[in-house]
Amino acid sequence: MDVGRQYVAQDRVHSSEPVSTLLFATARQVAADQGLFESCGSLGERREAFHTELQTILRDINDIEQIARRQFTARELRSQHVLNGGVLP
Q1: What CA–CA distance (Å, rounded) separates 31 from 37?
Q2: What count of other Cβ atoms lies within 10 Å of the Cβ of residue 53?
Q3: Is pLDDT at 69 greater than 80 in this prediction?
Q4: Residues 57 and 89 in one domain
Q5: pLDDT tens digits, residue range 6-64?
Q6: What gap in Å lies between CA 2 and CA 6, rounded to an integer?
Q7: How many domains does the chain have?
């Protein structure tokens, strides 16, 4: 938990949610399931592949967030247009 709080203070994570013990334990289990704690010849490659996969997921989440924001803004503008009797704000 101390490391998690440090990461929040350093802006290494975007919110304090990942600091929760349960989420940290789950993340650790995912890494263990991927064999990322087992020393072997391809450990570096597997860790890099997992890192790349996580980066791709984060990019996808950010893309979805941007699409959702644009759609929300468009809906709000249409709603305001209708409420203003067809006059754009």
Answers
A1: 7
A2: 11
A3: yes
A4: yes
A5: 877 888 777 777 667 767 888 899 999 998 998 888 889 999 999 999 999 999 999 99
A6: 6
A7: 2
What the block records as the tokens of 76 is 């709000």
| Same domain? 1 vs 22 | yes
Tokens of residue 47, six digits: 């860790």
Question: Residue 24 is encoded by which pair of tokens?
Answer: 């940290």
Residue 86: is its pLDDT beyond 70? no
Shared domain check, 72 and 47:
yes
CA distances from 27 to 20, 22, 85 (A): 11, 9, 51
Q: Cα–Cα distance between 55 and 64 in angstroms, integer?
A: 14
Alpha helices in the chain (DSSP H): 2-9, 21-33, 43-83
